[in-house]
């Protein structure tokens, strides 16, 4: 091999394709002896062939370069933060093993609420946290980043304005997500609110402790850091419709023809409840939302049509109207409010605890449904005997906790202990 080809070999080894100059295309062709493999009948055809090869090579070089640049822009560093378009499809699972799931999305919203023993990946109820800061012109916002693009026009009934969603409420300009299982963290920033805000979602996951790692619970911690030199007065709030009530559908959207649903009082929180129905024990289910801090409760939202309830709710948030109300059957939703003051440079954390209890299902395995015993139910409650319900799948936690009250009590009593157990485990050290 001559010296010229040897030099060319040295240049080509390990060099990206787009670093080869066009003037060297001829040398590459000579080097590969392509002319010997192509039988041309005359010199003109040879020249045309070479021209086509050179043009094709230039197009290839350009496409490779643009493709590599595009890949560079989308590269995500290992264990790095997710932001911008990277947040479009992030949903961080929370909830014990085999106990159900809810997800904290990359922008801070809650979705994939699947607590009735089957995946409900499109279940995104009307539930959210919010902050209102006294004295700021635009100081009231949902504690979430921008709405993901695919949700605005991609969901059912979006053509009617997404009346059952929070997409029209003001929210934070920027969001950033970090994943450190079992902790998912969202950082929020906005030019209107001079605070650093962090949302940390998690559920217990403790090596060698299968019971506490399988609880029907999860938690959110909202931490507010004051970046100003004055004390900030604010009201944190958390709101939810009763998404446990049995839903129907018509051409106008969701309806709730069945009764037996209610908002119930709990300590520093509220209970979203649905009772049994005759011959339908699987309807029964409760979901608790509470806080470890002292809170003021509103158990009864405004009952109206169209957008009345969300409009009145946002007016209360924006005007910092913290007023308690009585629990009532059939209320569409409830709210909890935590007033607080944050001094300059100080950080304060509000804990929001979720717990659920759905004792029955219609799931069977290896059983001929024609051989199932008929239901024997109490007409006054609609609930059926254990002889009937035990023929179907029942979650393990139903044996440990008789009702939602016991789950909620256990979660609030052991919250800090369970968090500390994980932080002290060997598994946590690997993720630091």
Short description:
With about 425 residues, the protein is an alpha+beta fold.
How does this model look, in words?
The chain has 432 residues and is α+β, with helices and mostly antiparallel strands. It has 2 domains: 3-74, no CATH class; 84-431, putative glycoside hydrolase family protein from bacillus halodurans (Beta-galactosidase, Chain A, domain 5). It has helices spanning 3-12, 25-31, 34-37, 43-74, 149-154, 308-318, 386-389, 397-400, 404-423, 426-431, and strands at 82-83, 91-94, 101-105, 110-114, 127-133, 140-142, 174-180, 183-190, 193-202, 217-226, 232-241, 248-250, 253-255, 261-266, 269-274, 285-291, 296-298, 333-342, 347-357. The strands form 4 sheets. Strands 1-7-8-9-10-19-16-15-14 form a 9-stranded antiparallel β-sheet, with helices on one face. Strands 6-5-11-18-17 form a 5-stranded antiparallel β-sheet, with no helix packed on it. A hairpin with a 2-residue loop joins strand 14 and strand 15 (269-274). The two termini are 55 Å apart.
């Amino acid at each position: 091999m001559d010296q010229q080809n040897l030099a060319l070999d040295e240049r080509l080894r390990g060099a990206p394709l787009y670093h080869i100059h066009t003037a060297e295309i001829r040398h590459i062709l000579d080097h590969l002896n392509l002319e010997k493999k192509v039988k041309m009948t005359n010199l003109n055809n040879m020249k045309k062939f070479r021209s086509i090869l050179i043009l094709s090579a230039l197009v290839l070089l350009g496409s490779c370069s643009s493709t590599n640049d595009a890949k560079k822009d989308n590269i995500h560093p290992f264990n790095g933060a997710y932001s911008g378009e990277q947040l479009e499809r992030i949903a961080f699972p929370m909830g014990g093993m085999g106990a159900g799931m809810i997800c904290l999305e990359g922008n801070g919203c809650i979705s994939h609420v699947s607590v009735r023993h089957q995946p409900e990946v499109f279940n995104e109820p009307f539930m959210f946290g919010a902050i209102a800061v006294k004295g700021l012109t635009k100081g009231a916002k949902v504690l979430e980043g921008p709405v993901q693009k695919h949700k605005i026009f991609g969901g059912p009934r979006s053509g009617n304005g997404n009346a059952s969603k929070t997409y029209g409420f003001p929210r934070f300009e920027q969001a950033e997500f970090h994943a450190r299982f079992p902790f998912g963290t969202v950082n929020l920033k906005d030019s209107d609110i001079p605070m650093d805000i962090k949302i940390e979602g998690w559920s217990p996951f403790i090596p060698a402790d299968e019971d506490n790692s399988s609880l029907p619970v999860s938690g959110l911690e909202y931490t507010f850091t004051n970046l100003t030199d004055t004390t900030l007065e604010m009201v944190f709030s958390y709101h939810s419709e009763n998404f446990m009530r049995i839903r129907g559908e018509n051409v106008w959207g969701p309806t709730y023809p069945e009764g037996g649903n209610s908002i119930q009082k709990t300590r520093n929180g509220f209970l979203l409840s649905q009772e049994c129905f005759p011959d339908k024990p699987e309807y029964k289910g409760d979901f608790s939302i509470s806080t470890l801090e002292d809170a003021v409760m509103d158990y009864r939202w405004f009952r109206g049509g169209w957008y009345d309830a969300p409009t009145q709710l946002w007016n209360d948030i924006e005007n910092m109207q913290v007023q308690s109300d009585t629990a009532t059957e059939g209320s569409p939703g409830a709210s909890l409010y935590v007033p607080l003051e944050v001094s300059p440079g100080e950080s304060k954390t509000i804990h929001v605890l979720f717990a659920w209890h759905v004792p029955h299902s219609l799931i069977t395995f290896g059983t001929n449904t024609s051989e199932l015993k008929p239901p024997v139910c109490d007409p006054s409650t609609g609930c059926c005997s254990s002889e009937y319900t035990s023929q179907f799948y029942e979650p393990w936690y139903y044996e440990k906790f008789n009702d939602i009250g016991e789950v909620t009590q256990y979660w609030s009593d052991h919250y800090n202990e369970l968090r500390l157990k994980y932080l002290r485990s060997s598994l946590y050290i690997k993720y630091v």
